[in-house]
């Protein structure tokens, strides 16, 4: 009897589970009647109070689907979700059964991700429960789970909601002494919270908590802090980043725990990238994520050769980038809480309007065209008044030889010293510090030159010479000038120390040390390679000398994964360095990658066009002879390698002349068209059509190539070749690879001849090419066209073809593309 009762009870549980599982279907059936619908929803509410946990868990699994249904039918039942489902989800967050709570938490996140829960419900029903569960007196298990939900909830809420309801509680939880699990969850999600609340709240409320977490007694919490360091840094001002976060990060790199040091080194390059400044790099990120140079103001529109003026001395980095437009003003939407350089009316940041030609609004827009990514530079101090006072003082003293802003003479040591004095009150600005270092080097050079001139005068006087300097004197002067240039360009005077803290750079450069692999991470060199473009971007091309040796070391690393990482990013590094440094330092490494393992070669191959287009034409032409080498692989079965080659060649064609395309790329394209793998063949047929585009512009080459196409494909004894000819003709027409009159004269007759091919697959593509491409061109739509009758006759035969697929494509609406061509192989 007891056994029977147990079975009946079990059946009752199973029955209620089945009912819960089928609630969505029931709602759909009764959604037309409002009274029936309300009855079903009330049944759902009663089922949520079921004493069996499996029934409650099953019901909660159905909640997201039911919520989606109610959302789609919101006009009919606007309050149903908020009235019936949200209370169930919230109540289950405190359910005594662990499975039910987990299911409820997952359902809540799905509802938030799908945008199904209103702001009022989140603020009025969900957040109060989470705040209650995270009280100091709350149960430990509930508290840990609630903190995890809160942290995930933060990124789905608005800034105002987070600041108003959750921020203070999050700060309290970061200092939870009793539960390390709570602190660990907070540390792991610290960056997301900072991103939501912004710079002001981050620096005022969150930064002290972050310092505490970075020095927590548990290494897992410190490791979590190291992993989110870049995101936190992005939410702070340059001053906080340099003076507070940098020393804190150095502590993590030197942490006693290997796991913390490992995480810190993995984040080091990303943290350094947060110091990037467009005014230093001369580069910006476009909307599609590509890296581009900031447009330059035309130098002809300005008074050239102002190197000797004080103004030129106080902006050395922008001149090194050969761009004065990077300081013209802030981005259209600067990051909240960050200051940015204010634009002058004449479009320049430093200088007087009377010394520069006015720019049009369009020119100004082009010169300031960069987004707010990594744009945190504080405004430079305006010292134009001090410079004007300096000149007036010189005039009052009767010195007529004082250079003005547009003077071409060199600045004297006294002038440089006065500019340095003007900058002293602003030494807390890192950019001013960089200017002071350059000015100091220039001052030393000026003083040295002055001493040398005095020495030359004394020698001349002692020798009784009053004429021109002798050849020996000219040689000495030349050596002195070279020494001055070396002084001004030496690493000691380079602004690198003021772009990022020197300790960070030293630690990054040490990542190639073999000892690091033994004491920190065996793949530390790979992490170094991965972040190197970001570090190079931050330092700017003028500081490439700091990274050159490290890059060369990584490029010859014995681990192919390290070399592969560099191969995939070398095109981005070329954009950062510019054409001169690329030709000198990257091209040799690029050439080495071309001869490396396939795993490395695929990296340069995938971005071959992006790299080659950055080279000068003569240098680029040298690679024509090496493209054929990509046909040779370590593993011939690696067909994706050949597929990638065909895709890149389609882009590369435009970089070369017609003769080069015909002499070198044509043969590679033909070889790829005979590949054993169909995917490679189909992309190669498209490549052939593009080769035709560039070859046909040179008339003789075009005719030769047309004849080759006809002989190789149209008259091919294998049906696959004849099918390829139909596809090539279609691609040529669709992409306008040649004038239609030439196509009609040279290729159309051969295409029409295939309309009676014995193989149905060939006739299918002929019908598709004629109906969807050829007849859609205005040249062939004219009833008076010389080929209109032949086209109609061929299509009539194809419409009556015995093969159904041929009939279908011959009559298909050209605007419908219901079948992929490759599927016909």
Describe the fold and architecture.
The protein is an all-alpha fold. Among the domains are: 16-235, Leucine-rich Repeat Variant (Alpha Horseshoe), CATH 1.25.10.10; 279-295 and 307-333 and 359-453 and 481-498, no CATH class; 696-825, Leucine-rich Repeat Variant (Alpha Horseshoe). A two-stranded antiparallel ribbon has the order 1-2. Helix 12 (219-227) runs parallel beside helix 15, helix 37 (719-734) runs parallel beside helix 40 and helix 40 runs parallel beside helix 43.
Unreliable stretches (pLDDT < 50, length at least 5) are 1-11, 297-379, 398-409, 459-471, 473-497, 818-825
* Structure classification: mainly alpha
Number of strands: 2
Major sheet: order of its strands? 1-2
- Overall mean pLDDT: 75
Could you tell me the radius of gyration in angstroms?
A: 36 Å
Enter the CATH topology name of the domain at 16-235: Leucine-rich Repeat Variant
Question: Helix coverage percent of residues?
Answer: 55-70%
In this structure, how is the largest beta sheet organized? 2 strands, antiparallel
- What is the CATH superfamily label of the domain at 16-235? Leucine-rich Repeat Variant
Q: Total number of helical segments?
A: 43
- Shape assignment: flat
Strand content: under 5%
CATH architecture identity of the domain at 16-235: Alpha Horseshoe
Keywords: Repeat, Signal
GO cellular component, one term: cytoplasm
Signal peptide: 1-20
HEAT repeats: 245-283, 747-770
């Amino acid at each position: 009897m007891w056994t029977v009762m147990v079975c009946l009870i079990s059946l009752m549980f199973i029955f209620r589970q089945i009912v819960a599982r089928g609630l969505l279907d029931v709602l759909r059936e009764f959604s037309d009647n409002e009274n029936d619908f309300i009855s079903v929803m009330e049944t759902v509410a009663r089922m949520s109070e079921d004493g069996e946990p499996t029934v409650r868990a099953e019901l909660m699994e159905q909640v997201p689907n039911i919520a989606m249904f109610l959302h789609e039918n919101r006009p009919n039942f606007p309050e149903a979700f908020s009235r019936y489902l949200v209370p169930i989800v919230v109540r289950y967050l405190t359910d005594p059964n662990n499975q039910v709570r987990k299911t409820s938490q997952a359902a809540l996140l799905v509802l938030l991700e799908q945008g199904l829960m209103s702001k009022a419900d989140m603020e009025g029903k969900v957040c109060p429960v989470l705040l209650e569960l995270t009280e100091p007196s709350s149960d430990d298990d509930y508290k840990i789970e609630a903190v995890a939900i809160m942290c995930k909830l933060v990124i789905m809420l608005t800034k105002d909601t987070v600041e108003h309801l959750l921020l203070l509680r999050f700060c309290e939880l970061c200092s939870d002494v009793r539960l390390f699990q709570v602190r660990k969850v907070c540390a792991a999600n610290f960056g997301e919270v900072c991103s939501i609340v912004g710079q002001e709240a981050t620096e005022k409320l969150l930064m002290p908590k972050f310092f505490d977490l970075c020095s927590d007694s548990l290494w897992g919490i410190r490791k979590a802090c190291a992993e989110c360091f870049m995101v936190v840094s992005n939410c702070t001002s340059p001053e906080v980043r340099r003076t507070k976060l940098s020393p804190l990060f150095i502590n993590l790199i030197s942490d006693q725990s290997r796991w913390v040091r490992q995480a810190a080194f993995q984040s080091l390059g990303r943290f350094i990238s947060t110091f990037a400044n467009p005014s230093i790099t001369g580069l910006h990120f476009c909307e599609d994520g590509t890296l581009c140079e900031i447009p330059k103001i035309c130098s002809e529109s300005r008074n050239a050769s102002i190197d000797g003026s004080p103004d030129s001395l106080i902006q050395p980095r922008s001149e090194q980038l050969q761009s004065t437009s990077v300081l013209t003003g802030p981005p259209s939407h600067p990051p909240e809480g960050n200051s940015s350089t204010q634009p002058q009316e004449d479009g320049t940041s430093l200088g007087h309007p009377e010394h520069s030609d006015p720019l049009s609004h369009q020119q100004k827009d082009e010169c300031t065209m960069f987004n707010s990514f990594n744009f945190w530079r504080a405004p430079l101090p305006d010292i134009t008044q001090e410079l004007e006072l300096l000149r007036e003082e010189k005039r009052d003293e009767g010195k007529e030889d004082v250079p003005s802003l547009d003077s071409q003479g060199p600045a004297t040591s006294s002038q440089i010293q006065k500019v340095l004095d003007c900058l002293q009150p602003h030494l807390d600005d890192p950019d001013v510090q960089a200017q002071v270092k350059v000015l100091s080097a220039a001052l030393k050079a000026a003083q040295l030159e002055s001493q040398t001139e005095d020495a030359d005068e004394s020698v001349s006087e002692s020798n009784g010479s009053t004429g021109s300097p002798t050849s020996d004197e000219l040689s000495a002067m030349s050596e002195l000038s070279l020494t001055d240039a070396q002084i001004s360009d030496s690493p000691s005077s380079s602004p690198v120390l003021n772009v990022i803290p020197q300790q960070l750079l030293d630690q990054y450069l040490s990542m190639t040390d073999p000892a690091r692999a033994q004491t920190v991470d065996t793949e530390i060199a790979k992490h170094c390679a991965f972040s190197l473009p970001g570090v190079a971007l931050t330092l700017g091309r003028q500081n490439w000398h700091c990274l050159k040796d490290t890059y060369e070391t990584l490029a010859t690393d014995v681990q192919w994964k390290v070399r592969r990482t560099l191969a995939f990013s070398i095109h981005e590094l070329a954009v950062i360095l510019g054409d001169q440094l690329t030709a000198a330092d990257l091209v040799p490494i690029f050439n080495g990658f071309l001869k490396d393992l396939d795993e490395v070669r695929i990296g340069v191959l995938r971005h071959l066009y992006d790299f080659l287009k950055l080279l000068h034409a003569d240098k680029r032409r040298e690679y024509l002879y090496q493209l054929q080498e990509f046909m040779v692989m370590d593993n011939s079965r690696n067909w994706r390698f050949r597929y990638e080659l065909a895709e890149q060649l389609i882009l590369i064609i435009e970089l070369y002349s017609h003769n080069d395309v015909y002499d070198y790329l044509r043969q590679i394209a033909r070889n790829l068209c005979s590949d054993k793998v169909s995917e490679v063949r189909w992309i190669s047929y498209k490549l052939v059509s593009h080769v035709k585009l560039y070859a046909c512009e040179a008339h003789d080459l075009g005719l030769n190539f047309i004849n080759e196409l006809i002989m190789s494909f149209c008259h091919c004894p294998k049906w696959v070749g004849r099918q390829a000819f139909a596809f090539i003709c279609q691609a040529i027409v669709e992409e306008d690879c040649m004038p239609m009159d030439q196509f009609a004269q040279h290729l159309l007759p051969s295409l029409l001849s295939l309309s009676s091919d014995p193989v149905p697959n060939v006739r299918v593509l002929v019908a598709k090419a004629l109906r969807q491409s050829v007849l859609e061109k205005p040249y062939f739509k004219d009833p008076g066209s010389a080929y209109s009758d032949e086209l109609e006759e061929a299509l009539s035969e194809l419409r009556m073809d015995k093969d159904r697929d041929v009939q279908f494509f011959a009559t298909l609406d050209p605007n419908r593309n219901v079948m992929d061509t490759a599927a016909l192989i």
